[in-house]
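Exam revision sheet. Question 4 asks you to relate a sequence to its structure. Input first:
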Amino acid sequence: MGETAAHEMGHFLGLFHTSEYTGSSHDPVVDTPECSGSRDVNGSGSLEVEECAGLGDDNLMFWTPFNSWMGIHPAQDVLTQDQRTVLRYAPIAQ
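Answer key, structure tokens:
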């Protein structure tokens, strides 16, 4: 619940998903990893966390929370330096 609240607060403060569910669009922040649609190995039409391992799957702003095929639920608590800058300069945070 806490990660979801933090993720939604990130949206409120100006952050976008690092990669959208299809992998066809990504946030405008330069230093966030991008997971492209070509990683959709199970052909579901949406990127699963495991398909984006090492490509932002652990980022707070990844499009979906961990719902592991293997029952493993690591934290999604990473923010890049540029994401932190967006938060720091959000008008409501001033």
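Marking note for examiners. The mean pLDDT is 90.
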